[in-house]
Amino acid sequence: MRRRRQESRWIHRRSRWLLAGISALGAVETAYLTITKLVGGDACPTEGCDRVLNSPYATIFGLPLTLFGFLGYAAMFALATAPLWINSDQNKALHQKLETSTWPLIFALSTAMVAFSGYLMVIMAFEIGAFCPFCVVSALFALAMFVITLLGRRWDDLGQLAFIGVIVGMVTLTGVMAVYAPIRAGGGSTSTAQGQAGPPITTASGPAEIALAQHLKDTGAAMYSAWWCPHCHDQKQAFGAEATAILPNVECDPEGINAKPDLCRAKSSVTGFPTWEINGEFYPGAQPLRRLAELSGYTGPTNFLR
């Protein structure tokens, strides 16, 4: 009995520090992903990571999902460390008040985060069908914080704690499913009857963009791309919606619309997306429109909008 109490005291003494450490790591991870997403960089080491972080599930209310993850981790860090900033000898009443009042909030937040992360893991595995190491690590962080919260304090009423946990979990899952309902119902821009498509092209084309796209098509050029590829989307944004409809785009992901994965595999020079094939030469990466015009021998108008 004595040994069991000693172990309990150890986890109780260290629980806030453990929560602070894990939430700090989670905040750094999600901040990195958010900044990379906002500046248009590439943070993903794997194709599956790219697919997950550029799927419609990775955006909420027009903002990166990772931003909300960062806010959750930051809130957990603030709650976990709140009493630690107060000198218990000099201000014992405030220290004790923060110690007591923050634990229910920590439990509610950790429950919401683990419920949300669990839902996203299901989406990643069964809806998107790809593996994202960043997402899995974040889910493990959420699970670890939930377990530490349960074990890191002597809870007086476990029945009430379970009731709060069920309510918070149900509210979280209900809210998440409501937010994602249009996507799962097929209302999102990336799901069609024929396969997956990328985000919608939101820019308009000028006469020069349309003429260049038509020239590339007429001369047998090809852009090898994947529906989940952010750089492919940037290339299409440069052309605009009308010109993109003309572009000689070859979808390389088997789940994409009108996919031609065998053709892509047959092109040994296609090692990333997008890759342009122009006059028998291969050019990796998104290209400026003037560069494409030069490479393809285009002689039409060059007053491109972007």
Question: Would you give an account of this structure?
Answer:
With 306 residues, the protein is α+β, with helices and mostly antiparallel strands. The protein folds into 2 domains: 2-184, Up-down Bundle (de novo design (two linked rop proteins)); 207-296, Glutaredoxin, CATH 3.40.30.10. Helices cover 60% and strands 6% of the residues. The protein has helices at residues 2-39, 47-53, 65-81, 92-128, 133-151, 158-184, 207-218, 230-239, 241-244, 261-266, 289-296; strands at 59-60, 63-64, 222-225, 249-251, 275-278, 281-284. It has a 4-stranded mixed beta sheet with strand order 4-3-5-6, with no helix packed on it. A hairpin with a 2-residue loop joins β1 and β2 (63-64). The longest helix has 38 residues, at 2-39. It starts with a helix and ends in a 10-residue tail after the last helix. Residues 1-7 and 187-193 have low confidence and may be disordered.
